[in-house]
User: Fold this.
Amino acid sequence: DLAAVELLDALAEEVAPFVAASATGRDTYDGRHTRRTGALIARCPSARRLVADPLVLDVVGRFLDRASTFQIHLTQLITLGPGETAQKPHRDQMAFDNFDFPVDYHVQCNTMWALTDFTVDNGATHLFPGSSRLDDHSGLALDEARAEMRRGSVLLYDGKVLHGGGANRTTEARQGVNITYAVGWVRQEENQYLACPPEIARDLDDDLLRLMGYRQGAFALGYVGDQTDPLAALRGRADKVATVGEYAEGSANYRGFVAELDGD
Assistant:
């Protein structure tokens, strides 16, 4: 019950024409009765409040605290239609070319906001708690859980956990807003700079733009031209990105390197 009813109603109205224009999935993994509608920051002003929800951002920041920064990875409304079958369990971090991240390093933190009620019958997300630290065979042997939740509630889950959409055995669509965050040094699943073009992005507030990736993702990552800060470039300024010393002041990941420089 984290999101207000008024916000959900506004979002449902804003996104409806885009959902109607979205094609269903091309295979059973995407869901042949499922529509995936992205670019929510540009298309739906109400979605921006979910993206920047302070409680969620606090949790994400604590969970991904081994990285210098985190960013939006994707925004997507998933409309799971009647007749949809259960999705193959998977780990979302497979998007990174199936890279074998260390067990104790989390590269992303995901949210699923219930735009409609999530029930077992309409396809509530199924998960295998504890599978984040196990191989697929051992993870799938764990007890399965279902994310049943009322409209306006949010599920948080990491990129390593085995999960998937459920089967929809009802006559109504199940809708969930999937907003995912990732550490600042990886490529985003949804390209935020094209999904939300500059003419729209310039009217957004700085904090949201930083979440979208208009900031240093880590030292020496993400600058424009002659080491210009990306947010400054969008605003028509020429501010430089932080030096390694300045960056180390806010990130423990670079303090040792700076200390060695000072020692020299």
Q: What stands out?
A: The beta strands are 34-38, 70-80, 108-114, 126-127, 145-146, 154-158, 163-164, 174-183. The radius of gyration is 20 Å. The longest strand covers residues 70-80.
